[in-house]
Amino acid sequence: MLSRASRLVQARASAPAVRLGAVRMASTFMTNYKKEVAERAAMGIVPKPLDAAKTAALVELLQKPPADEGKELLELLKMRVPPGVDEAAYVKAGFLAAVAKGDATSPLISQKDAVFLLGTMQGGYNIQPLVDALDKPDLAEIAADALSKTILVFDSFHDVQDKAKKGNAAAKRVMKSWADAEWFTSRPEVAKKITFTVFKVTGETNTDDLSPAPDAWSRPDIPLHALAMLKHPRDGIKGVTDKENGTKAQIDEAMKKGFPLAYVGDVVGTGSSRKSATNSVLWYMGDDLPYVPNKRGGGICIGSKIAPIFFNTMQDAGALPIEMDVSKMHMNDVVDIYPYEGVAKSHTTGEVLAKFEVKTQVIFDEVRAGGRIPLIIGRGLTSRARTALDLPATTVFRSLGDAPPTPAGYTLAQKMVGKACGRPGVSPGEYCEPLMTTVGSQDTTGPMTRDELKDLACLGFSADLVMQSFCHTAAYPKPVDVKTHHTLPDFIMNRGGVSLRPGDGIIHSWLNRMLLPDTVGTGGDSHTRFPIGISFPAGSGLVAFAAATGTMPLDMPESVLVKFTGTMQPGITLRDLVHAIPYAARQRGLLTVEKKGKINVFSGRILEIEGLEHLKCEQAFELSDASAERSAAGCTISLDQAPISEYLTSNVVMLKWMIAEGYGDRRTLERRIANMEEWLAKPKLMKADKAAKYYETIEINMDQLKEPILCCPNDPDDARLLSDPTIAGSKIDEVFIGSCMTNIGHFRAAGKMLDSFKGQLPTRLWVSPPTKMDAAQLTAEGYYSIYGKAGARTEMPGCSLCMGNQARVADKAKVVSTSTRNFPNRLGNGADVFLASAELAALAAIKGKLPTPDEYLEAWKKIDASAADTYRYLNFDQLATYNDKATTITLSPEVVAAAKKLAA
Ligand code: SF4
């Protein structure tokens, strides 16, 4: 793996060859570039932004440009280099800084031009040269103009403040401009009337439809990835058939009306926050961003219902998401919306099509600022400048609203978020910015998070622990994935994060083992749902913001309480309790499967679970993980202290073993270990107040739950009993046992069932444990030999079939899977997928059909006889392989002292 510095050295190393023959190589550079442009144009897309090596070659040429290429070369430098702390930006900023200082020259770029262009680079490597230019009489005004519109200045604020205090007039102007929020007021307000052409997608669009998992490899290349948007044909959408007749042709046709397009759907963005889905929509329906190649912002997204986390991702990208009735809007209609009045009318007849209310008036400021994240950062800068200048708070921004009254009691989630905000609790509906203690990033969103971090000019994480995994791409990587495997670990560790390695296993099975009780975090995977503490998963933009700043904007959601009572009955597994939640909600009319007018009590709310306090943390994660399928904003599970202490004791050993195995960043791992040990020394857990109020309470009496529950093809909300006549005896072709919903106990249970089966399986059985530690333990206990004998296909630990971007089941296969979700086409094209427990899945693999409840119970009794052996979890403190290495690690005294101080 190359460090950032090494790669920059490599990039520069290519420059001398160019320098030797600038005129001759100029032609070569442009010839090669034009070839690339033509290749991409043949695919219907714009060229990639320039990388560091190309930028290095370009800046060499600009110093002595060939007469007929100068204009084009300059345009490339201006428009085709990513801003922020991208490596190419480093080269560009370095060159422009040298020109501004007079250390380098170009006949095409004056010193003033150089300062102006530095001002278009948003933040990062361009800031120091701009601050330096404030001292140069010729350049100071241009630098002041640029800095006034720049919000990603971080600690350079103090440099400008110091200069202002010393009497530098340009620096004083910058401070005043920041205080007056000119970065904001200089941008246009949201128009009173917006006209657009409807791009209508009926029914439910989930984020897999917008950004399909098998195309995850192309997500960082926004124009290329956008070609996969709505690739499967559906009602009114042609899919990817051919260029002339597919979805893209429909988009081109709609654009001929001469207005921007708006994405309009019944239910939009179900499934995840997936920034790549937003990127694809905005690539076709957003606005160009000046000086930022291959990215668009703004845009309008309308849905009768927009999934809350997708809504947030749209907000972060500067789009205007609005919920309204879309029944009178059809493909290619031209519509006028009046956002402040809350009305949509036909552009041709003036007929009122729908009335609406925007979620919050602040959204108008967010759109004006270019997104929720720029607004938060900019507001912070303005407030800092006003404090420095002794000015009262600004009134430029719309008010966040009065805090709701303090409730009589807080729920567990409200207390956890309160603690992260330094308060006893946070009321539902209240805006807050909780501290992000733990942030996770996985590999199909990781490269986008990296790009967002570069855009945020982040050179070090403020979140206490940021972890990167490679679980989605390790098994069958494409060349682009291999490149990510080589480059992303250093990018994360150089900023103080922890990087896993390809083949280690699933993000959550690792990240959960790094958590601190009652703390808050986030992650770029929608299943980042902590079993202890709480996580609010988010799109890669917000995840990057949380990692970089250590906080996250949050409108505290309401909570729905699910309360389990009674005792688990024979044959019932944790997975059945997971499915009992949608089952019970449907019976009470709080959840519907029908998409039109869909009801979902959990959507955008926090799912809080009580009544299963004895669960191990691994088991609790099955419940919290599946809160993603409920479209919940987050999940808490009330647990006893004993399982949490057991988990942390084990996890301390795992983290020390990681250090011994050479994982980094060591300091971050040490810090987390020290904080865990402090908690173990004085364990303390929050509980919901008795007077806490919930939006709804759903009670599930386990005494009445006597047979397994499956979620039927292809909707995780379609929960039915095994005996349901509509599914009884269904033929099964393939079975998948794996995903973050599984732990080692499931693989032992399946292994024991397979062991008692003699002969060849009539199905294709896929087995993929969540981590390499699970795989090693199962191998040591002889389970891999059982899987092999039964004819099962064992896969590398990781997401495997669950993500659908690696190996896939056969087209139109009938499948039982232990994975998280069964969205159409996720596991295989046209596949019908039942979600079920590992125990039921193993039996279905043996029988080639769904068993009857009696057959299931009979098989279950055999494994229940040895339940204590089957359902043992990986307690690393009890395993010599890990413990022996862990004992070699000593924490640094400063880290231990800091943890003690924090706990005090
Ligand atoms: S196993 Fe599936 S749900 Fe879990 S992290 Fe991987 S892809 Fe996501």
Automatic annotation (TrEMBL):
Protein name (database record):
Aconitate hydratase B
Pinpoint the Aconitase B swivel domain residues. 197-409
- A single GO cellular-component term on record: cytosol
Which of the seven top EC classes does this enzyme belong to? lyase
Q: Which pathway or pathways does this protein act in?
A: Carbohydrate metabolism; tricarboxylic acid cycle; isocitrate from oxaloacetate: step 2/2; Organic acid metabolism; propanoate degradation
Residues in Aconitase B HEAT-like domain copies: 32-184
Q: Which GO terms describe its biological process?
A: propionate catabolic process, 2-methylcitrate cycle; tricarboxylic acid cycle
Source taxon at top rank: Eukaryota
* Taxonomic path: Eukaryota, Haptista, Haptophyta, Prymnesiophyceae, Prymnesiales
NCBIfam families of this UniProt entry? acnB, PRK09238.1
UniProt-listed Pfam families: Aconitase (PF00330), Aconitase_2_N (PF06434), Aconitase_B_N (PF11791)
E.C. numbers: 4.2.1.3, 4.2.1.99
Matching entries from PANTHER family are given as:
ACONITATE HYDRATASE B
